[in-house]
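Morning run. Coffee first, then this:
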Amino acid sequence: MARHPCPMTGMPKPVIIENQPFWAKILTLFWAAEMLFGAVLAGVGATWLGGPDGWPGAAVMVVGLLLVMAGAMMADISWRIARLAGPAIEMTPQGLRDRRLSDVMMPWHDLDWRLVFNGKSHSLQFDLRPALRNQVRLTWAHALMAALNRLFRYPEFTILTLGTGMSAAGIAEHMRSFRPDRN
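And here it is:
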């Protein structure tokens, strides 16, 4: 996708990606249902703990609690995206602002981003330099997602495609116009 640079600066024109909350609303309901299902599994597992062989109950309970945790994290993120008014992502010569993650404008030189293929799909992920990282205030759900990304040795932050109407590769293409040195 060719982007025409601004004649005054030589930099690409700002890119504004509007928030499209429809699917975020639908997915909020899905994640809430996952939490409910996980709670039911955890409850069933808890009732099996008292039997002569309690390990199946413990396993079912752990799976249920994991579903509750993942569902709560994703429901919170989806709900925040569904309620966001205005643009989701702004890219300017000064940097990137993903308003679903933080209101902080992240300068391009502080971002180390890449398009990651995790075996099923592409994900746009990035790390921040420590000085800027301390300025970015995360919700509990984004902090948990960042911790899981680090656990699996991925870049800390994820630019979600939910609510953008674009693919991770499409967003990365826009980002490349501001940082052509990135793949």
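The mean pLDDT is 90. Good start to the day.
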